[in-house]
Structure formats: structure tokens, C-alpha cells
Specification:
With about 400 residues, the chain is mostly helical. The protein contains 19 helices and two strands. A two-stranded antiparallel sheet has the order 1-2. The termini are far apart.
């Protein structure tokens, strides 16, 4: 169970810490909130955090091998994945470090980059070969997660909150199941294994912003998911309801944010990826996987509007209406890049068919219409601006 605010406020070590700090209620509230987030991430109450750190120091364990070192890097990763600004992340660490220092704990050096974070070099972004190595050291669940992230661009929040129903809906263009059959995992697995060219269509929301969007996943990814579902069924982690989490922890519940961070930490260690030289953080993360998806689409010539929509970025209402009402057009664009978002060679039947050619032609027609509409909107805005300027000038003249 997550710690509540009262759990933090009533903790012995936290109360001693807070007595030595500012008496302003707003500042105290900020301390409580930040320490609670950190304590919930690590899974230890403040007093346990201090006792653990003191025990490791007294045991003579080198700082780089202490748990606090992993806690700090993993916690930064979690906050970054949630989209926090570097300045906000710095604020969290200022409070957490102050808490540890109050008890004379020696802390790891951790720099938070205060740049916007958007200037990524190619050395910071994994390649398909890195993903291939990561899959080799992953279990069946983590493999399914990695291949879904690779081919869909979903962030950690979306992955953790996916339900089994999201998956069933993603394949509904290919199989028509009765309500009882949707929960018949052996039947679902049997039907989907027969389809080699299945491109899943995911209509979901960005966890961070609530923005509705559409993305897709590769046939390889879908096969990995059904392998995992079959494994769950055979290991007493069966799906009982449509709203059950698609991916679960060892305790058969939704994977926590720290749980997914630990997944990537484990992969980094097993694959020997180390840290990014430029950014001093773990090289292989869910965030860098999303960067790989983005750069792959751009390298295949997919236009920015389509990429933004598949990433769940906010776009203008005109473009949003086209993609929302016609996901097949967006799917046609995705199919141009899917072979570069898989580890094995992918066969997508529609790629060489007349239907696909029609989709591409229709997609180009719609691109032209969108450009035309955007141009007309810009012209109308310019005309309105001129009209307002003239009206203001007239009113100024009348006042004189």
C-alpha cells in the first residue's frame, strides 16, 4: 500500500527533519509531498531510508555500490518519464538530499541537466541492435513490453495502464470475438497465431496529458504479447476481466512506475549497456525507446503531423479531425516504417496490394487538403488582423 501524507508527517525521522527547517506551512507541505513521492518510489518509510543508509555506511560499502546510488538514478528516471521539468526534478532532489544530509548521510553526486532536454545526439538513442540485445536478456513479459514500445512509441505510463481490453480492441479489425470468447485466452491465442501480418491499432490516451491518440504495433509485437498471455494463462496469472492490466507484476497487479524503471535497470545491467556519456544516465530506458520510435519514423520520411499524432502530441484541430475519423490513413503511413520497427523481417500483406496503394493515394490527397485548409486558416487570420488594425486606427482618429 502506498504511504499516505499522515504516514510521512508522523514518521519519527521526518518529524525531526521538519523541525529543523522552515516554519512556513507551504514549505512544510512541499517537503511532505516530495518525501512521500520518494518514499513510495523506494518502498520505504523515511526512518527506514535513514537506517538503511546508516547501516551501509557502517558496513563500509563503497558509495557506488550502495542502494542510495540506485535509488537516486532510478528516481530521476521516474520523474523524467513523468514529463517533469528539470527545475522541478531539481526541487525534488533538493528536498530528498536535505533530508539525508540532516542525518549526515554521504550522498552520490547527481547532476540534473537544466537544458530543455530536447537536443538528443544519435549516441544517446538506442538502435535496433541494442533492442535485440535487450530482448535476449529479457523474460517473456519484458520482451513483449520492449517490442510493443519499439513498434508503437508508447511511453511508460501508457504501457503500465494498458488493459486487456485495449489489446482486444487493437486486433478487432482481424478477429471478431463474442463477449465470452474475448476472455477465452486459448481461443484468442489460437486465432491470432494464424495471422502473420497483423498491425494492431491502439486507440488510447497519453497517461501524462489525457490526450486521446492512435498508434500501431508490429506483427512481431502482437505475437510476443500473445506468447505472454499464453504464459500468464499457464502460470495462474489468468485474465479474468477485460479491464485487467495487460502487463502485471509478480504479485499479479499493475506494474508500478518504479517496477518498470527496475525492468530497464535490470536490462541495462544484464546487457552491459552502461550509461549515456552525454547525459550521465542509464543508456537504455523507456524514454530512449520512444526516441528511437520517433527518429525511425522521421528517417522513413513520415511527416511530422502523422508522427506527432502517433506519439500523442497535441496537434491542431483540423489535422486531429482527419486522423481521428480515418485511422486507416494514419495506418498506411505507419506501414511505410514498420519494417524498421521490428527485429525480424516483417511481412505485411497489404504493403504490396492495391488496397495499400489506394490508402497511400488517399493519404496524400488528405495531406493536400490539410495543407490547403491550414493555408486558408492562415489567410483568414491575416485578414482578421488587418481588419482589427484598421478599426483601431479609425478609433484613434475619432478620439483626436
Amino acid at each position: 500500500m502506498p504511504f499516505e501524507l499522515d504516514d510521512i508527517k508522523n514518521d519519527r525521522c521526518f518529524k525531526d527533519f521538519i523541525r529543523s527547517r522552515s516554519r512556513r506551512s507551504s514549505t512544510k507541505s512541499q517537503y511532505i509531498t516530495r518525501i512521500r513521492v520518494y518514499a513510495n518510489f523506494v518502498g520505504k518509510i523515511p526512518t527506514e531510508l535513514i537506517e538503511e543508509a546508516e547501516n551501509e555506511e557502517e558496513a563500509g560499502i563503497k558509495l557506488r555500490n550502495r542502494k542510495i546510488n540506485d535509488y537516486f538514478y532510478d528516481f530521476r528516471e521516474k520523474l523524467e518519464e513523468e514529463g517533469m521539468l528539470p527545475s522541478t526534478i531539481n526541487g525534488y532532489f533538493d528536498t530528498v538530499k536535505a533530508f539525508y544530509r540532516h542525518y549526515d548521510i554521504h550522498l552520490p553526486k547527481l547532476k540534473i541537466n537544466l537544458n530543455s532536454g530536447e537536443n538528443w545526439s544519435m549516441e544517446d538513442i538506442p538502435t535496433i541492435d541494442h533492442v535485440r540485445e535487450a530482448v535476449k536478456v529479457s523474460d517473456i513479459r519484458d520482451k513483449a513490453i520492449l517490442l510493443l514500445m519499439l513498434s508503437s512509441g508508447m511511453g511508460s505510463g501508457e504501457i503500465r495502464h494498458l488493459t486487456y481490453e485495449n489489446f482486444i480492441k487493437s486486433v478487432s479489425d482481424y478477429i471478431d470475438l463474442s463477449d465470452p470468447d474475448k476472455l477465452n485466452i486459448p481461443k484468442v491465442v489460437y486465432e491470432l497465431r494464424k495471422i502473420e501480418d497483423l498491425i494492431g491499432t491502439w486507440k488510447i490516451h497519453r497517461y501524462k496529458t489525457g490526450m486521446p491518440y492512435i498508434t500501431f504495433n508490429s506483427p512481431e509485437s502482437t505475437q510476443a504479447i500473445i506468447d505472454y498471455l499464453s504464459h500468464r494463462e499457464n502460470n495462474n496469472k489468468e485474465i479474468k476481466n477485460l479491464d485487467d492490466p495487460l502487463f502485471v507484476s509478480s504479485r499479479r497487479i499493475q506494474i508500478s512506475s518504479q517496477g518498470l524503471v527496475f525492468v530497464f535497470r535490470r536490462i541495462n545491467e544484464r546487457a552491459g549497456f552502461g550509461r549515456s556519456k552525454e547525459r550521465n544516465r542509464r543508456f537504455f530506458t523507456s524514454h530512449t525507446m520512444r526516441k528511437l520510435f520517433t527518429s525511425t519514423l522521421y528517417n522513413k520520411g513520415i511527416d511530422q503531423l502523422a508522427v506527432d499524432w502517433m506519439l500523442g502530441h497535441k496537434i491542431n484541430p483540423v489535422t486531429e479531425a482527419y486522423f481521428k475519423n480515418d485511422p486507416q490513413t494514419l495506418k498506411a503511413k505507419y506501414m511505410e516504417a514498420v519494417e524498421n520497427l521490428t527485429l525480424e523481417k516483417v511481412k505485411v500483406k497489404n504493403v504490396t496490394t492495391q488496397e495499400y496503394d489506394l490508402l497511400i493515394r488517399d493519404s496524400k490527397d488528405k495531406d493536400g487538403k490539410i495543407t490547403s485548409l491550414e493555408g486558408r486558416i492562415e489567410n483568414l487570420e491575416a485578414m482578421l488582423k488587418k481588419t482589427l488594425e484598421k478599426q483601431i486606427e479609425r478609433e484613434k482618429g475619432e478620439r483626436k
